[in-house]
Amino acid sequence: MSSFAVFVPPVITVLLYVVGVLPYALWVAKRAPSKPARWAVIGTAAAISAYGAGTLYGLAFTKPMDVCGDLTGRGVYMDASRHYGLTSVSVDAFPPSITCHWTSGNSTQAVGLWTTALLFAGLACALVSFALLLIHRYKHREAPHDIELDA
User: In this structure, are residues 91 and 61 in contact, taking their beta carbons and an 8 Å threshold?
Assistant: First the structure.
């Protein structure tokens, strides 16, 4: 696997967080949202950036074979140590994953495990936060003038 596929996606993910801090800080300072609203935004941002990093891990949907191995002069994709040839590649869109299958019978995962963990943690955080926001909104709704609410 190339150094691009190893180092660039985490760097881009951190860069996205740094770029997103300023609008988030302005929003929090100006609007003073509730904690569940803040966590919903943070969880959504984490899930989006993790999915973006996972799909960037070698541009999986364009040339996944280039992510797994290096093309030799004979036109065969080999692993980094040049011991095994690539037999096939499996690409899944959600969660983003690229599985490389080698002639040795082993399979390797080209997308880092941190992307899947961050993706699902972000989705869980956003889902719980949105549920808390809806519950709070339901409990504090106003009744029409001629109907009383059950509480």
Answer: yes
